[in-house]
Amino acid sequence: MRNAIFLAVLSLAACSNPKNPVQSEISNFQTTGSVERLDSAINALIPANAKIEVLASGFEWAEGPLWLEEQRALIFTDVPTNKIWKWTEQDSLSLYLEPSGYLGDRTDKNEPGANGLALDAVGNLILCQHGERQIGKMLASLESPKSEFLALASEYEGKRFNSPNDLVFNSKGQLFFTDPPYGMDPWDEKQLDFQGVYRLDSDGKVNLLIDSLSRPNGVALSPDQRTLYIAQSDPEKARYYAFDLDEIGNVVSGKVLFDATSLQGESRKGLPDGLKVHSSGTLFATGPGGVLVISAEGKHLGTILTENGTANCAFDSEEKYLYMTADAFLLRISLK
Predict the structure, then answer these.
(1) Could you give the CA distance from residue 71 to residue 208 in angstroms, rounded to a whole number?
(2) CATH code, domain with 290
(3) In whole numbers, what is the pLDDT of the chain averaged over residues?
(4) 172: left (phi over 0), alpha (psi -120 to 50) or beta
(5) Would the pLDDT of 86 be above 70?
């Protein structure tokens, strides 16, 4: 058990230089890690002088980063402690929501909290709730969060999910999500004999899209929403998959986009986990070493080496920063 939250946050100094607005802010956050550049194409995404900044630390296992544009804030989950935290440039770190994923009385659950987070079309907070084994909707505004939830989906064909992990909406309001068993405890009854990838339609129907992956984890969509990306956190098959979707949102074909199995090692902690897609179509995918930068064609351009097992990442609305949840840390790096 780690100690209570400790902020690794110093001051943020600003200087006025109208001739060079890019340098109008100077960061005094502590830094860590480095950027491995395997292909020059990464330089169009990550500046040569970009540093990995440590914004906060002391979490059990930070996950699910989500940018809230109206609040200019990042919220993220700490799964084992059943909490969601909020970070802003002005106010630093504050507790956003507790509990986040489990509303029962047991205190010995391993990973009770929420994992992946998303916003629906009207701004409701949608959560992958490990402890409740469901996709839930928070019944409160983003500005005044409360631990009151509506279950949007909790089972497939009458059988309870394992523990929904990550999720992404398309522009039609369809929700794609993964369901590995990571949030289950030994006493939980496993009712499904596979780890599924699902689509939840606006009418509440749950559609099974994929049942052949051993550990589906992170999920994302291409900018045109015709490709569904899935990260598989299986150490024997540490891969990122690309599945073609038809107009309805069904999977019509799939392939291994990039296999990261051989990258694992003592110096490169972590497995394929959360991932996000840049507006350029480039994937920022957590995996061995930190965050792998992978082209839409499956070429490994480089890795943001965080020096920690890295769970997930998220852009702000302007793609000015990539925020990363890496074990006990909340990190970020500037983008072009």
Answers:
(1) 35
(2) 2.120.10.30
(3) 93
(4) alpha
(5) yes
Q: Does 4 map to a domain?
A: no
Ramachandran area for residue 118 (φ above 0: left; ψ -120 to 50: alpha; else beta): beta
Question: Which domain covers residue 321, as residue numbers?
Answer: 12-334
Residue 10's pLDDT is 36
Q: Is residue 126 part of a domain?
A: yes
- pLDDT band with cut points at 50, 70 and 90 for residue 307: very high
- The single residue listed with the structure tokens 């990995």 is 52
Within a domain: 318: yes
- Average pLDDT of span 302-331: 98
The answer to whether residue 6 is domain-embedded is no
Q: In the structure encoding, which two tokens stand for residue 311, read together? A: 């769970």
* pLDDT for the residue 232: 98
Q: Alpha helix (H) ranges present in 194-313? A: none
CA dihedral for 22, 312, 36, 54, sign (positive or negative) = positive
Q: Are 150 and 169 in contact (CB under 8 A)?
A: no
Distance from C-alpha of 162 to C-alpha of 152, rounded to nearest angstrom: 15
Q: How many domains does the chain have?
A: 1
- Contact between 45 and 76 (Cβ < 8 Å): no
Average pLDDT over residues 67-83: 98
Rounded Cα gap, residues 217 and 240, in angstroms: 10
Contacts of 296 (CB under 8 A, 6+ apart): 222, 227, 281, 282, 283
- DSSP annotation string for 147-200: S-EEEEE-EETTEE-S----EEE-TTS-EEEEE-STT--TTS----SS-EEEEE
